[in-house]
Specification:
The complex is a heterodimer of chains A (about 220) and B (about 120). Helix content of chain A is about 10%, strand content about 40%. Chain A is mainly beta. Chain A has 2 domains: about 150 residues, Translation factors (Elongation Factor Tu (Ef-tu), domain 3); about 50 residues, no CATH class. Chain A is extended and about 70 Å long. The model of chain A has no long low-confidence stretch (mean pLDDT about 90). Chain B is built from 1 helix and 5 strands, in the order αβββββ. In chain B, a hairpin with a 6-residue loop joins strand 2 and strand 3. Chain B has a 5-stranded antiparallel sheet, with no helix packed on it. Chain B has a single domain, classed as SH3 type barrels, CATH 2.30.30. Chain B starts with a helix and ends in a 33-residue tail after the last strand. The longest helix of chain B has 8 residues. With about 120 residues, chain B is mainly beta. The radius of gyration of chain B is 16 Å and the shape is globular. Classes of the chains: A mainly beta (about 220), B mainly beta (about 120). Chains A and B meet through strand 1 and strand 2 of A and helix 1 of B.
C-alpha cells in the first residue's frame, strides 16, 4: 500500500480526453523521509514512519532532532505512520525518501485531512434537518430541530433521550477521509498530485494520501 | 492558496492558440457534437455579446436570432469541444457586455462595422 504526506494546494478544473471538465484538487505531496521503521519484534507491530516538511532550525527540539537523526534525516513538521499488516515486512528502510512516484501505478486514492471547523452549528447545518416552514403560523422556530423525545417512545420514562440523538453542537475540525478519488495526473517534477473531487480541510492543510483498496 | 501551482495544473487544459475575436464580432463557432457513436461539427453563428472569466474558466456568449426567437449559447473558450471560432465581421461597440441587444429586434440588433485594428480586417 502506498502512502504519502502532503498539503492541499487548492482546487481547479481540467479537461479530460473526452472533453469533459473535471473538478480537481491539487495536492503538493512529498518528498517524505522515512524516519523510523517499526517491526513486530521491536515495537509489536509493523509500520513505517513518514515525515513531511522540515522544521525551522530555530524551532527544532533536541528530542525531535535526535529521533530524526537516527534515520539521518532532519526533524519533520508532519509525521504519520503507514501501518502494515502483521506478516507484511516493511519495504522501506529508515533514511529512504518517498515521492509521488509511489502512486504511478495507482488509479484511485483516499485522502485523510482535518475538515474545516464550523463552530457551534444548529441541527439544520450539522445534520441536514429540514427545520420548520417559513410561514403558516410558524413562530420563532424556523430552524429548530423539533421534538427530541416523547413520553411514549421512552416507554414511560419521560426525560430520557436516546443515546446519539442528533442535536446542535460543534461541527467540523475532525479527521475525515474521502475515498476513491480518481487520480487524474501526477507531476513528478513539482511533486504534485491531481485528484478528482474535493478533499477535507482548507488550502494549505496537511493531508495523508493512501492508495485505495478499490483497484 | 498557491495559485501558481494551480495554474501549472490547469495550463495543460488550455488551448495553445486561442482564436482572436472581440465582443461585438459576428462569429462562427464550430462545435463538436456527439450523436450516438458519430461525431460531427456543428456551426453556430451569431454575435459575441459577452466574454467573462479568466484562464480555464473563460467563456463567451454568442447570440443570434433564429425564427424570430433570440438564441444564446455560452461556450467555454478552452473546451476541446469548441473546435474553432471564426470571426466574420467586427462590430463597433462601446460596452464590454452587449446585453442591451436582448431588448432589440429586427434592424436594431445590427452593429456598425468597425474597420480598424482587428484581425478580421487585417
Amino acid at each position: 500500500m502506498a502512502m504519502l504526506l502532503g498539503r492541499k494546494v487548492g482546487m481547479t478544473q481540467v479537461y479530460d480526453e473526452s472533453g469533459k471538465m473535471l473538478p480537481v484538487t491539487v495536492i503538493e505531496a512529498g518528498p517524505c523521509a522515512v524516519i523510523q521503521v517499526k517491526t513486530t519484534d521491536t515495537d509489536g507491530y509493523n509500520a513505517v514512519q513518514l515525515g513531511y516538511q522540515d522544521v525551522k532550525e530555530s524551532r527544532r527540539t533536541k528530542p525531535l532532532t535526535g529521533h530524526a537523526a537516527k534515520a539521518k534525516a532532519t526533524p519533520k513538521k508532519f509525521v504519520r505512520e503507514m501501518r502494515l499488516g502483521k506478516d507484511e515486512q516493511p519495504q522501506l528502510s529508515a533514511g529512504d525518501n518517498v515521492d509521488v512516484s509511489v502512486f504511478a501505478e495507482s488509479k484511485y486514492v483516499d485522502v485523510t485531512g482535518i475538515s474545516k471547523g464550523k463552530g457551534f452549528a444548529g441541527g439544520m447545518k450539522r445534520h441536514g434537518f429540514h427545520g420548520f416552514p417559513q410561514s403558516h403560523g410558524t413562530k420563532r422556530k424556523h430552524r429548530h430541530i423539533g421534538a427530541i423525545s416523547s413520553f411514549a417512545s421512552d416507554a414511560g420514562h419521560g426525560g430520557n433521550l436516546k443515546k446519539g440523538k442528533k442535536m446542535p453542537g460543534h461541527m467540523g475540525n475532525v479527521t475525515v477521509t474521502t475515498k476513491n478519488h480518481d487520480l487524474v495526473s501526477i507531476d513528478e517534477e513539482r511533486n504534485l498530485l491531481v485528484i478528482k473531487g474535493a478533499i477535507p480541510g482548507p488550502s494549505g492543510g496537511y493531508v495523508v494520501i493512501r492508495g485505495s483498496k478499490k483497484a | 492558496m498557491n495559485t501558481e501551482m494551480l495554474d501549472v495544473v490547469a495550463v495543460n487544459s488550455l488551448k495553445k492558440e486561442v482564436p482572436y475575436f472581440e465582443v461585438g464580432d459576428v462569429v462562427e463557432v464550430s462545435c463538436k457534437i456527439k450523436e450516438g457513436e458519430k461525431e460531427r461539427i456543428q456551426i453556430f453563428a451569431g454575435t459575441v455579446i459577452a466574454r467573462r472569466g479568466r484562464g480555464i474558466n473563460e467563456v463567451f456568449t454568442v447570440r443570434r436570432v433564429a425564427n424570430n426567437e433570440g438564441v444564446e449559447r455560452i461556450f467555454p473558450l478552452h473546451s476541446p469541444n469548441v473546435v474553432g471560432v471564426k470571426p466574420l465581421r467586427s462590430g463597433k461597440v462601446r460596452r464590454a457586455k452587449l446585453y442591451y441587444l436582448r431588448d432589440r429586434s429586427g434592424k436594431g440588433v445590427r452593429l456598425a462595422q468597425r474597420h480598424t485594428k482587428h484581425a478580421v480586417n487585417r
